[in-house]
Amino acid sequence: MQEDRIKIALAGNPNSGKTTIFNNITGARQRVGNYPGVTVERKEGSASYKGHWLNVVDLPGTYSLTAYSVEELVARDFIINERPAVVIDVVDTSNLERNLYLAVQLIELGVPLVLAFNMSDVAEQRGMKLDLALLSRLLGAPIVLTVGPKGKGLDELLEAAIGVANGEIKYPPVRVHYGKRIDRLIDGLEPLVEADAGFTGRRPARWVALKLLENDSRAFADVKSPALAEAVQAGIEHIQKTAGDSPETVIAERRYGFISGACQEAVRTTVEKRHDWSDKIDAVMTNKVLGLPIFLGLMWLMFKFTFVASEPFMGWIEDAFAILGGLVGRFLTEGSTLHGLLVDGIIGGVGGVLVFVPIIGFLFLFMAVLEATGYMARAAFIMDTYMHKVGLHGQSFIPMILGFGCTVPGIMACRVIPDRRDRLVTVLVTPFMSCGARLPIYSLFIGALFVEHGGTVLFSLYALGILVALLSAKLLRKFVLKGDTSPLVMELPPYRVPTVRGVLLQTWEQVRMYIKKAGTIILLGSMMIWFLSSFPWEPEYSTDYGAAIAGAQEAHQGRPAEQQAAVKELEARMHGEKLRNSYAGMLGRAIEPLIRPLGFDWKIGVALAGGLVAKEVVVSTLGTLYSVSEADEESQSLRERLQNARWPDGRKVYTPLAAFALMVFSLLYLPCFAALAVIKKETGTWKWPLFVLAYTTSVAWVISLVIYQVGSVLGIGLG
Ligand code: GDP
Ligand code: MG
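Above: inputs. Below: predicted complex with guanosine-5'-diphosphate.
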């Protein structure tokens, strides 16, 4: 039997349970990507149901369909341009009136619609009684009660969706009335919209007319005929004058009025519970005094957990790569180019980065749990007070928290911040938030030098990042982007018990991205660094050292132990000298005077320069440089090699102090070129990315310098 294909889009407010339902429908059959041109995640999946093949897209969570945020535009464009056969609007029933705001806009857009009344368990607990038949009629779409985590109502939902898609289920269309005056304006605009070449009929004329009156920039951009533009302008002025408020406000009020009317008819609440358990938890969690210590405590716990849980796994992966390196090495001639490229370049570099997969996995697991329970929204709420002190608000903390994962989406998330100055300041300070790619650097040095206090060191780095970001915001606010902060009301979603599946899927996405990066950018970076550190190839080394080695063998004839030691020593010297004179060595030695005061040698300089491409490259570069410089010892882990590294005068390179300064530098300097590119894109000029490059690097240099010099004088962490 030929299966038909049905395209389904899932829309809904953030936290309404969209992703849970998406996972229910599609299971593991999903792909994650981005919408073209923006870093809004696009999740797609497919499923087969009773002979129908369903293609499902999880749209970004939105409250509305205005043109103010990328998420809303993405959701709106998808629905308009990709014409899904049916849109399932996932509604949080326990917060019905607010959630129906989006539903009303979908109704007005005239899309085939099914309403999934999710969280119906919560609604029931609160004593809500719904007359579904009546509400369906009032809203003009079938309604199905669902409970996401239990999969309840799923079959019924799919039946309804397929029915609507096939045209078997049909409700009489519903029209929201905006009052005589506005309705008449809309009626008058409709024919002008239909006649305008800019609107080719994908969007209902009435909806376009409404959007134009709402001053929707995206709709405006499509207007071609001057007649329409004039009529809209006149209409807006007319509403402004007669209603004494902007058309947007008046129209939004009317929509809420429509919803409120429908709910009054069809929804009854039997018990009134003013303080449910969510509020009780919040009384403690977001308490004025306790909120911040609890937040900091949870963060500390997160890092401690990450570190302790991942330790054994990392050991196994490290061993596996050592064995792999040894095996591959055995089949190739020692000292050949291929041997160098495979063993030192690729296995040393990429392996050095892949070792940190467990750390990434556990950290994001913990974060996914915090997010799914609703705690992350509280974190922003708690930080709100502190954000105000630096001239921002809690809203800016969300992009910054995203920055813990990756700076690029963090910066893109700033688009939702309405005030231009607030947005710009947030864009400029988000790079200080410690992204996932810096984590391998920390874990490398913590594993080598701070095993006892791993969690604390990690925590202090993340905290320092936040602190520098906040102080920078304060400075920027004071000297560069002056002005008042705009007021903002934040809404807290209720606490929820996360689903195992949702949390694991989200974690897996992050891990997968990390592994993918290791196989692409970092692989290329490692090969490049290997090339730079292995060439130019000076044949005289081989000849000179060959002769010296032969001499040493001669001199220690008959004493195998001494002979081996002497040869090894010479080989190590040869590798060291080769590396110093390679391209990487030249670059490193050119940088060295600048970074010597921070306690860094030239190899670190090369690694930091490589880190501009992507932060993981710092680790893979060190992996490659130290494999290249050692004679054999493939079995030694990078950590051990770092512990053994010496300055020419015999002192250790990686003292705890120097390593800490290095971690701080890695935390604070530019995250990567991709971050620069996205800042350019978001701010529209090269001025800001260049500012960020200069600013972050200077801040990193100064703070690391202070740490290293003060530590040296006080004699802390030198041993
Ligand atoms: P999204 O932001 O719309 O994608 O929402 P998610 O699917 O990530 O769900 C947010 C949280 O709500 C998760 O912790 C889910 O486990 C929880 N959740 C989803 N549906 C329900 C439901 O019907 N009842 C209850 N009690 N919790 C739910
Ligand atoms: Mg989601």
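The domain at 180-269 is CATH 1.10.287.1770 (Helix Hairpins).
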